[in-house]
Amino acid sequence: MQAMRNPRTCTYVGQANSSGIGELPVLVPWEIHIYPKWHSYFFHVYGEKVSSLVDLNCFTWFYWSAPVSSVSLFHDDDFTTSNAPLGSAPPNIAWVGSLRGHPEYIMGEQGFFVHRNERSSLSDLHRQSRLEVVRTCKPLHLYGRRYELDTSEGTVWFFAVVGSGIYVDTGSPFRGLFLTVADRPSLLSGKHFIRWRAADIDWFFLAANNVSALLIATAFSWQGFIPRGELVFRDDHREVSCCPSLLRFSRGFEQRHACSCHNVNGFMGCRTNEFVNALARTSV
Q: Where does residue 47 fall: left (phi above 0), alpha (psi -120 to 50 degrees), or beta otherwise?
């Protein structure tokens, strides 16, 4: 699956290519002098030093402060031509959203996604007690969208990534199911699903099926877009907040550290993660 990778044990498919960000270092504690900028970046993101093997080639998200030598950005619909098969995007390319006002587009102000190819099982993803995420809480109407934050509709959406340094706890005591699917069409085949809106997944769908949290591992791959991981929680209180109170957040790579989640210039961040304030970029 695409987004939730273990930077210590992942096995990615495909080599660095000229259209991607290139091969990145594998960080180990005793080589700080070889990659000082990457070690500094890792410390700022996770709030701790590298203490074991960290393969940056498994990361699917980088802030603009990442010390990559060069970035050639693609859009998530660049490989959706009529004669291209689904999942035709080459591995290791950096991408942002193409549609103004969509969350993928807005996230491009803070950083960029990286498309990886990896073999994982949905059951492995489902067993993780916390998932690394990014999220924008900028009002979408500022970008021409007609509706506000997704929390106003009773759902809280995240992109599931590796590399953000912020985790949301999936083991919280929610009432209802925590489901993991490959993509939206999978929702049509399960016995739990009695209704589904093709345009999106809303509070009514989640409530009708007793779903508290839904992980979509390769969202939009069925339409030919570059896949991305999506994690959506049902919020019965419909709290309009960048960090809804029903969720628990944390930081840390090897160790779990407290994250006092708050709105940082329109993006989810931690109060202890001061560097986030300097990461945003005004345009893509």
A: left
